[in-house]
Write a structure and sequence with these properties.
about 220 residues, alpha+beta, five-stranded antiparallel β-sheet
């Protein structure tokens, strides 16, 4: 084997190994991200009480609990399957977009099975578009959610100073913060998937292809 060919072969081997290692990391982080989106969707800790609120309690996208002034016990309501139990139209819309975001991420994991049947580069790009769309839906959900803070139920917990995009005496809880962080996670994962898809289209270096073609032509002659 010629030295140039040997160098190209080594480069190609390292290129493939690095691409696979990054692909494994992307897969692990995608699965982790899907767990985060499910937690963000389910957990009712988007906003909550503080030491200055009239009532104890917390709110999620659809489920919420508010304390009773007499007994101090929490009364919980709200279900994703019962839109009528959600206290605000903005909460319903936010739930819809965050739910779509969650389904898109879970769908990208389902698409992993396509690696056995389709070109890897195409699968990476499909997952990348799904993750990018998931990020967009999460952004919309996070932006719409505060529009529902003027509902009667939220004011009962947070005080009358509460209004749209003004939380009054309440505080933002960890699930809302996690939702915002997940937007950046989704963007990074989608850009990484686009990069991996492009790499898959280029796994064999051009120099090695030229060398190989030249040897084949020489044998034919």
């Amino acid at each position: 084997m010629l030295p140039a060919q040997e160098a190209a072969k080594i480069y190609h081997t390292n290129y493939v190994r690095n691409a696979r290692a990054v692909g494994v990391l992307w897969t692990v982080f995608t699965i982790t991200f899907s767990v985060i989106t499910v937690v963000v969707f389910i957990q009712p800790y988007w906003i909550g009480d503080s030491v200055n609120t009239p009532q104890a309690g917390y709110f999620g996208l659809f489920h919420y609990c508010i304390g009773n002034a007499l007994t101090s016990e929490l009364t919980c309501k709200g279900s994703a399957l019962d839109f009528g139990s959600i206290p605000s139209g903005a909460f319903k819309t936010a739930m819809f977009f965050v739910g779509i975001s969650m389904l898109l991420v879970v769908g990208s994991i389902v698409c992993f099975s396509l690696f056995f049947f389709c070109n890897a580069g195409s699968v990476y790009k499909i997952c990348a578009w799904m993750q990018l769309a998931s990020s967009t839906c999460m952004v919309i959900g996070c932006m719409i959610y505060p529009d529902g803070w003027d509902s009667d139920e939220v004011k009962r917990m947070c005080g009358q100073r509460t209004d749209k995009y003004t939380l009054g005496n309440c505080t933002v809880r960890w699930a809302y913060i996690l939702a915002i962080i997940s937007i950046m996670d989704s963007l990074i994962l989608s850009f990484l998937a686009f990069s991996l898809g492009s790499r898959q289209d280029n796994l064999l270096p051009e120099d090695f292809q030229v060398e190989s073609k030249g040897i084949s032509d020489g044998r034919v002659k």
